[in-house]
Task: inverse folding
């Protein structure tokens, strides 16, 4: 059996790994010069940068299994999500987002101080208490790949859900900034089911690999280097009489028994004109946030010790959803005494900056950091700019429901075609990896 995988991101590489382990003949076409897609790591001047995905949550079982297969399980490292929210007077209130008693209990005083000082009206806090029992009662339902019983929450947006359950103040003071920090999109855009899933992940802890999150995709790409063709965009998936025939690359047909497209939904729609209408309608529900991710390598620390992220709610009129100090992740992310600050521009600000010059981007983001952290130096050691036109799959209302139907009833409607990609589950690197394993397993079964 000959299988073609399109795209060497996390989904495609997970499919490749599964197929190779089963002894299948596989060829992977990647349009870019490198593997990883949105999970990659760059290294420069003693710093380690993750341009795309920043962390794995503790629920990323498929990713961790892959890491163990690759012999890098022992390079996993965890850190605390110590975030801080601004107050009206410009000061920040730190809070540890964790339900792990070992982390939560020692930080309880800080959490109470946060709740007391966040400026959230008493009535809103009372209303917020209405969300907590629901979250606790339905906690088990908010799985990343196993969420079917939470699909009733896929009908409305996270914003509508939070306002209905807790009121506007809770939305603006808590959920909006958390949603923006995790998806680079406002909560009006994503479904409540996805929002609850992310919240559950966030309070369960963050992980990376010591030498960069992209270690996992680097290792997979090294291991299967002989199967991957770089700078080889697939121009078309050829489907005839309800069956896959192969793909077109450089104008020539490459025949295959199975094709696993593991790319974004928008790109898939462009190269697969023969998809059935129900696939097309589901794929059209998939949207992505935009981000201009700017990282400054600094000769000093500008965040208070141990803080990972500053979350900036939209009422602060910040261009960024938040700022993070990535040197907290592991000792290898920045040389001793140095730090690296990520600026997460989002929504219209991201769009504007993605069309601006490097110098404009750099200056605007230094100004932005200084607003919140006045000790930010005027000249960083160097600056990295990553323009993501399609950053995080947003999971808008209805998307999870549409793909649940496809997976349950129509996954084999086109013979030999097995979809993969983060949009098939609750969007995340875990979802991408799981979808790749799922597609490869289905292809092997025939
Ligand atoms: C800034 C940023 C921060 C993020 N933070 C997190 C995070 O902290 N945690 C998390 O879980 N997720 C995060 N994400 C999302 C996460 O990175 C994605 O959900 C995941 O990596 C998607 O994997 P994928 O394989 O489905 O798609 P991709 O990574 O997009 O891979 C698709 C691949 O297909 C290739 N391709 C495209 N078209 C073609 C073609 N025609 N022919 C051949 N190849 C093609 C692309 O070059 C790419 O390599 C973040 C993303 C960004 C951008």
Result:
């Amino acid at each position: 059996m000959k299988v073609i995988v399109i795209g060497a991101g996390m989904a495609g590489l997970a499919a490749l790994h599964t197929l190779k382990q089963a002894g299948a003949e596989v060829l992977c076409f990647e349009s870019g010069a490198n593997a990883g897609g949105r999970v990659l790591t760059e290294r420069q001047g003693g710093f380690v940068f993750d341009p795309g995905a920043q962390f794995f949550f503790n629920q990323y079982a498929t990713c961790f299994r892959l890491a163990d297969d690759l012999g890098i399980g022992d390079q996993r490292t965890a850190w605390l999500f110590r975030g801080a929210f601004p107050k009206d007077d410009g000061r920040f209130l730190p809070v540890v987002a964790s339900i792990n008693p070992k982390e939560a209990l020692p930080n309880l005083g800080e959490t109470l101080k946060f709740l007391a000082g966040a400026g959230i009206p008493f009535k809103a806090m009372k209303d917020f208490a209405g969300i907590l029992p629901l979250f606790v009662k339905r906690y088990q339902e908010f799985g990343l790949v196993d969420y079917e019983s939470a699909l009733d929450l896929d009908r409305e947006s996270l914003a509508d859900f939070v306002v209905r359950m807790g009121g506007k103040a809770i939305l603006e003071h808590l959920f909006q900034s958390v949603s923006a920090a995790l998806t680079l999109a406002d909560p009006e855009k994503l479904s409540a089911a996805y929002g609850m899933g992310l919240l559950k992940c966030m309070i369960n802890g963050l992980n990376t690999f010591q030498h960069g999150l992209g270690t996992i995709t680097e290792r997979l790409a090294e291991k299967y280097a002989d199967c991957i063709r770089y700078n080889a965009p697939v121009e078309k998936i050829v489907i005839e009489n309800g069956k896959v025939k192969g793909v077109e690359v450089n104008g020539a047909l490459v025949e295959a028994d199975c094709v696993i497209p593991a790319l974004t939904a928008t790109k898939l729609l462009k190269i697969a004109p023969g998809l059935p209408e129900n696939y097309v309608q589901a794929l059209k529900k998939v949207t992505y946030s935009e981000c201009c991710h700017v990282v400054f390598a600094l000769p000093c620390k500008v965040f208070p010790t141990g803080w990972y992220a500053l979350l900036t709610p939209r009422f602060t009129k910040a261009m960024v959803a938040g700022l993070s100090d990535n040197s907290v992740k592991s000792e290898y992310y920045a040389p001793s005494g140095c730090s690296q600050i990520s600026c997460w521009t989002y929504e219209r600000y991201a769009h504007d900056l993605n069309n601006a010059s490097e110098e404009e981007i750099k200056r605007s983001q230094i100004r932005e950091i200084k607003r919140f952290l006045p000790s930010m130096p005027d000249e960083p050691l160097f600056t990295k700019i990553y323009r993501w036109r399609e950053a995080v799959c947003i999971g808008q209302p209805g998307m999870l429901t549409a793909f649940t139907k496809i997976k349950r009833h129509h996954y084999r409607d086109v013979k030999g075609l097995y979809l993969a990609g983060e949009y098939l589950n609750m969007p995340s690197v875990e979802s991408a990896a799981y979808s790749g394993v799922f597609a490869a397993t289905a292809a092997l079964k025939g």
